[in-house]
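Go through this chain.

——
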Amino acid sequence: MNWHKVTTIRDIPQGTRKHVTLAGHEYMLLHTKEGIWCIDHRCPHADGAVGDGMILGQNITCPLHKWRFDLCDGSHAHAGTKLLGVYQVKVEGEDVLIEA
């Protein structure tokens, strides 16, 4: 995996999210009080726009089917379904990079 610049810190202030596409794959950056998270924008269960879901603490809820995913590791409570993709984020100066 390689690090890729996807935005700048000023383009994603705390409390906002930013949809980015890299090599045809959709990601969602979420800037919460806990930090900046990067997840797959599409739900692994039903292809819903999980990146648009409600954030509560370190969880995000898919608006399509209400499954809750952990932002740290992509886990959920439903056996037999893939985890939500979660990606490392780092900030270098003003640049926000993801490892993908």
Summary: The chain has one domain: 3-99. The two ends are 5 Å apart (CA to CA). The chain has a mean pLDDT of 95. The beta strands are 3-8, 17-22, 25-32, 35-40, 54-56, 59-61, 68-70, 86-87, 89-92, 95-99.
